[in-house]
Amino acid sequence: MKEPLRQQLEYGLKEMGLHFPVEVQQKLVHYIQLIARWNKTFNLTAIRDVEEMVSKHLLDSLVVQPFLEGSLVLDVGSGAGLPGIPFAITSPDKHFVLLDCNGKKTRFLTQAKIDLKLDNVAIIHARVEDYQPLKDGHRIYFDVITARAYAATEDILSSTAHLQNENTQILVMQGKLEQQFADDRYQLLEAHSLDVFGLDAERHLLEIKRHSRNKFMPVE
Fold first, then answer.
1. DSSP character for 150?
2. What whole-number distance in Å separates Cα of residue 118 and Cα of residue 95?
3. What is the pLDDT of residue 81?
4. Which of 27, 46, 52, 193 has the smallest count of CB within 10 Å of its CB?
5. Spatial contact of 42 and 104, defined as CB atoms under 8 Å apart
6. Tens of pLDDT along 176-209?
7. What's the rounded Cα separation, in Å, for the pair 47 and 43?
8. Model confidence at 212: pLDDT above 70
């Protein structure tokens, strides 16, 4: 089954103008097969058909991959690892933190990291509001924060405020485009309309940063 899935993925990527080596595609397929296997017990996703996962999970995540900037990425409410694991597989030069408060899902993510040999991934079991990453005693701020089907945009911005600085790129993945959020600390750089092969549904990406005129005040 693996090779037909890989060919399905390869065709979808090509239609979307994306290309990854065969070994990367194979790892992506291995990942959704892991989801399908664990789904029987852990209910990671409502999608049960692994062929549907190619478009609804892999392609729907990877359509955003070209927008990633910087090297340290936080995937908030990662769930089954979407979009964090597809990003980590296709961007081995970046480091990804996958955060979720659901213990069953972080157990799956930990096993997926091992099975897929993803040395550029860290798994965190915590509420985002409680997550206080430090390095050498100093607060860590992320280059990129991603969120997919996690919460309303305003909630994402407020719950991750302590993990942002003025350079943080916030990428919020949506279906139908929300009304513009009412928070004057942030600017919507662009609302991208996304074309995901195999999906007959609206997909959008909000690219957000803090207003440069509002100096970032670290939370002590």
1. S
2. 10
3. 97
4. 46
5. yes
6. 887 667 788 999 999 999 999 999 989 999 999 9
7. 9
8. yes
Provide φ and ψ at 159, rounded to 5°. Answer: -75, -20
The band of 149, judged by pLDDT with boundaries at 50, 70 and 90, is confident
Give the whole-angstrom CA distance, residue 134 versus residue 198: 41
- Here the tokens at position 148 are 């997919």
Under CATH, to which class is 67-210 assigned? alpha beta
Which of the 8 DSSP states describes residue 130? G
Cα–Cα dist 77/41, whole Å: 20
DSSP characters for 48-108?
--HHHHIIIIIIHHHTTGGG--SSEEEEET-TTTTTHHHHHHH-TTSEEEEEES-HHHHHH
The domain segmentation of the chain, as residue ranges, is 67-210
